[in-house]
Amino acid sequence: MNWFKVPGVVYTQEPFIKKVVAGGKSLCLVGYNGEVFALASRCPHAQEDISRGWCKDGKLVCPIHRFSYDLQTGRGSPGQNDFIHTYPVKIKTNEIYVGFNTWKENLINLFK
Ligand code: FES
């Protein structure tokens, strides 16, 4: 796994939702209940910028059609039959890092 620092964002306990770029990927970074989550920046339903949404009950809600996604797993709410990609997050001395699989790890995961 390769870890990339999220530039311009410092960890705090405060809730937030921000669109960021780390390691060349556009992400939606969410601070919720003191934890930080990294998700794809586009809603899988119709590609809206999901960082314009809000959090409710541990889910990120898209502002357009209100589909919602679990912050931990990325799983869509019942009936949606979809998911948003999530990425692991590490906090190191108030800096936030997001992990991306290497191409070899992605290839191995394809055959699991
Ligand atoms: S674009 Fe997000 S719910 Fe439709």
From TrEMBL:
Stored PROSITE patterns: RIESKE
GO molecular function: 2 iron, 2 sulfur cluster binding; dioxygenase activity; metal ion binding
Keyword Oxidoreductase included in the entry's annotation: yes
Domain Rieske, chain residue ranges per copy: 3-98
Keywords: 2Fe-2S, Dioxygenase, Iron, Iron-sulfur, Metal-binding, Oxidoreductase
Required cofactor names: [2Fe-2S] cluster
Keyword Acetylation included in the entry's annotation: no
InterPro entries: Rieske_2Fe-2S, Rieske_2Fe-2S_sf
Record-stated family: Belongs to the bacterial ring-hydroxylating dioxygenase ferredoxin component family.
The protein, known as: 3-phenylpropionate/trans-cinnamate dioxygenase ferredoxin subunit
Species annotation: Mucilaginibacter yixingensis
